[in-house]
Amino acid sequence: MNAILEIAGLNRRFGGLQAIDRCEFSVRKGSITGLIGPNGAGKSTLFNIVSGFLKPDSGEVRFEGRRIDGMAPHAVARLGLRRTFQIPRELKRMSVLENLMLVPEGQFGDRILSVVLPDARVREEERANAAAAREVLQMVGLETKADAPAALLSGGQKKLLELARCLMSRPRLMLLDEPTAGVNPTLIRDLMDVMRQVHASGITLLIIEHNMNVVMELCERIVVLDRGHVIAAGTPSEIQENRQVLDAYLGGADA
Amino acid sequence: MFELQIYFVSALVSAAIWTLPAAAISLIYGVLRYPNFAITEFMTLGAYLALFLCGFSFPLWFAAPLAAVLTGFVALAFDQTLFRSVRRAGALPPVLLSLGLMLFLQNAVRFLWGNDVLQYPIPLSRPFVIAGFVITPTQAIMIVSVLVILLLSIVGLRMTAFGRAVRATSTNPELAVVTGVRPEIVYGGVIFISGFLAAIGGVALATETTLTPLLGWRVLIPLFAVAILGGLGSVIGAAYAALLLGLVSEFSLLVLPATYKTALAFLVLAAVLLVRPTGLIRAGD
Amino acid sequence: MVAYLVAILIFAMIYGFVALGLNIQWGLTGLINLGQVAFFAIGAYAFALATHAGMPLLAALVLATLVSGAFGGAVALFTPRLREDYLAIVTLGFSEFIRLIFLNEKWLAGGPDGIAAIPRPPTIPGLDTETSFLVVSAALVGLAFWFSQRLARFPIGRTLRAIREDETVVASVGKPTLAYKSQAFILGAALAGIGGAFFASYLTYISPDMFGPNVSIYVLAAVLLGTQGSSLGTLAGTAVVAALLEGTRLLKDYITIVDGVQLAALRLMALGLALMVIVVIRYRTTRSP
Asked: How many CB atoms are located within 10 Å of the residue B54 CB?
């Protein structure tokens, strides 16, 4: 298997709580992998560790074979591993377009020096940047909102903006933290289409998701986390039949 | 080893001066969650009010608490008219307000009493010498008074209903409200007490030095160093921290010039803040 | 009367640098700095010492800018993760710390006596010395304003505004937030340093007691008065504060019931009150039940 993300022997404790407990799994390059588990299973903590916002107590995280555990968040992002946030963190007082134009790396105009130089180069760069941003907005269906302040978007649209911001950098791996939570059913369809499109363009997806329909339909492989430990991994049908998973998680009302 | 005993007494005197105003900073931070930079000016105001009352031939032991009560009311008045209207706007607005209040009060004192150096009408008296410890009667009275007020505050926070409400609000404001604590009463009470404590500290400082409009401002850095060192929010912590910083800065005189006492306090302050890391993301799922 | 007006305008220019600097740090990037006077003082002293060491004025100005910027960088590097309230304490403490250093280090900065005989720039032919100084400082403020405006509008300004709104997002898109924050803090400190150099040159004499917290409060009020983040607003706010503070000096000829000390105290009381009123208007929250 050609793994893009490998997690091995990962541990993280918060006070008396072992949030991540000898966690171990990998994500195949080019896949859509689902990460599920009951509330408090450590899914978001895991995302925070992988994206560099938290340091693990022990264990390894490898992205494309390279150790990334303990790296700063911006350094991890620069390698081509991007994440969204469970609760959308749109930059409220900036326009939707600006939210995306923030993203590209190595902008010449993003250096202080550019401020005192002739601005032709920055202008050119900004034109291209805006065009790229509009393209991404088109892809997620937010093109009509480009100039609106991000604060005015609806909950579902904010989720789309999270996705768009992630897409803007053309990463190789995207971690999506509950992309459909709190989104109305019609928009969930749209979101799933976008995710398929993203996947088709060659980006690997790791998705935390509570909506089982979404997970079962979208993911080719599912990893189940319980109390910070991987209790099962396999195809959707394997997971649906796994007794341990049913006991821990699916045994409830919505199975 | 005569010298070491002198350092020790100086440390004790400094600690006594700092303890109550630092406790005031701590209390306000614990309950209202902002650093109040006007505390130093409540010290100055309290010291001058006490001087003013001494002018009616009240003795200082009577004038000081009276001045402190008045200072408490001044603090309460500003809290109710200005600070109250930005209660839910985070730490920054009250911080800026306290800075404005600092400038206002410092210059109000200057307006009323001028820039001249003034002093309490305390007769000079011969210091005691006990086992090499040299201490003046004024210093002894000051230290004992501070200790009494400190103990009263600690007991008050432990034993009274108001004290319990303060501690509840300090640890968990939402839960405190649910259990029937009325937050505005706690806030007002804490502000009044803080004004009172600061003023006593101001009088204590003025008995050791002289009264000038910059009286309180000069101890801004040590006060915040003490409050932070003591773990913002804790009165007992402030007392221990005052003693610790007093000892450190007095004994630093063995190796550092005297002018660096305050600089040292700043370095302590910065160092303590830096080793309390606050991460980017809150832990948890 | 005209002389007073020129003096007020010169002070407005001097504080203009300092306020524009604070606006980059706080208005644009969201880094609160209650001790902007520290960098103002460092700039003033660096300029005074450099000119006394025989440096040409322009070189001394550049040096003052660089030295204040360097101190800004040091503060930014040591306090990267401090929360807003802690940053407030550290910056205010730092400014008093710097003042104490200048007060105590006689060998370096003359101690309480300060430094005298600081040169002014040569007078522009055809103008009197005061107007000439005003023209030179206004030209430089204009330059600083142009720079601030472009900074805010350029992609770098977008990144700084994004940091003000949500640092975590900026890190998540691959930008080193600490580096950006440090740069903003350095720029703000350097601008304050330029202001300090002009201040020293204008008064031709500086002493530690000129660098109390008042200057920090002036510029906080100025940035708050102009809508936070806008360079034009900041300059307008500075003009209002300077008019309020320096303009009321005029009153001493008309008001005789209070003496000089009292009048000075009244002016600063007014400034303190003004800051408080602005804060209440800007941040007032609806009363909760």
From this structure: 18
Taking an 8 Å cut-off on Cβ atoms, the answer to whether B107 and C88 are in contact is: no
Instruction: Report the percentage of chain C scoring pLDDT > 90.
Output: 62
Q: Residue B10: what residue type?
A: S
**Total domain count, chain B:** 1
Backbone torsion region of residue C10, taken as left when φ is above 0, otherwise alpha when ψ lies between -120 and 50, otherwise beta? alpha
Please measure the distance between the N-terminal and C-terminal CA atoms of chain C and give it in whole angstroms.
53
Bridge partners (DSSP) listed for residue A232: A224
* Contact assessment for residue B20 and residue B201, using Cβ atoms and an 8 Å cutoff: yes
Residue A208 pairs with which residues in a beta bridge? Answer: A35, A177
Q: What is the end-to-end Cα distance of chain A in Å, rounded? A: 31
Task: Name which of B33, B96, B228 is nearest C279 (Cβ-Cβ).
Answer: B96
Q: Is B224 exposed, middle or buried (0-12, 13-18, 19+ CB in 10 A)?
A: buried
Whether residue B88 and residue C285 make contact (CB cut-off 8 A), yes or no, is: yes
Nearest CA in chain B to A43: B285
Tokens encoding A224: 């189940």
- DSSP β-bridge partners for residue A11: A58
Chain B residues in contact with chain A using a Cβ-Cβ cutoff of 8 Å: 279-281, 283-285
User: Which of B6, B3, B10, B39 minimizes the C-alpha distance to B243?
Assistant: B10
B199 and B149 in contact (C-beta within 8 Å)? Answer: no
Residue B282 lies inside a defined structural domain of this protein: no
User: 243-282 in B: which are within 8 Å (CB) of C?
Assistant: 257, 259-260, 262-263, 266, 269-270, 273-274, 277-281
Neighbouring residues of B166: CB distance < 8 A, sequence distance ≥ 6: B27, B30, B31, B157, B186, B189, B190
pLDDT score for C284: 86
Judge whether B222 lies within some domain. yes
pLDDT tens for each residue of B181-223: 888 899 999 999 999 999 999 999 999 999 999 999 999 999 9
Helices (H), C105-230: 106-109, 129-153, 155-165, 167-172, 177-203, 214-225
Enter the tokens of residue A111.
Answer: 């250096």
**B61 lies in a domain?**
yes
- In tens digits, chain A (255 residues) has pLDDT values of 588 999 999 999 998 888 999 999 999 999 999 999 888 888 999 999 999 999 999 999 999 999 999 899 999 999 999 999 999 999 999 999 999 999 998 898 899 888 888 889 999 999 999 999 999 999 888 999 999 999 999 888 999 999 999 999 999 999 999 988 888 888 888 889 889 999 999 999 999 988 888 888 999 999 999 888 998 888 888 888 877 777 776 554 443
Residue B132 belongs to domain with CATH number? 1.10.3470
Tokens (6 digits) for C84: 């807003």
Q: Which residues pair with A7 in a beta bridge?
A: A25, A61
Q: d(Cα C148, Cα A90) in Å, to the nearest integer?
A: 25
Burial of residue B281 (CB within 10 Å: 0-12, 13-18, 19+) is middle
* Whether the predicted pLDDT of C228 surpasses 80: no
- Which residue segment(s) compose the domain that B37 sits in? 1-275
Give, in degrees to the nearest 5, the angle at Cα B221 between B216 and B223.
70
Give chain B's radius of gyration (CA, Å): 19
Pairwise CA distance, residues C170 & C27, whole Å: 17
Q: Which helix (H) or strand (E) holds A60?
A: strand A58-63
Q: How far apart are CA B109 and CA B202, in angstroms?
A: 13
Within 10 A of B283 (CB to CB), how many other CB atoms are there? 14
- Report if residue B232 sits inside a domain: yes
Cα-based distances in Å from B11 to B8, B133, B151, C194: 5, 12, 19, 41
Which residue type, as a one-letter code, is found at position B187?
Answer: Y
Task: Say yes or no: B117 contacts chain C, CB-CB below 8 A.
Answer: no
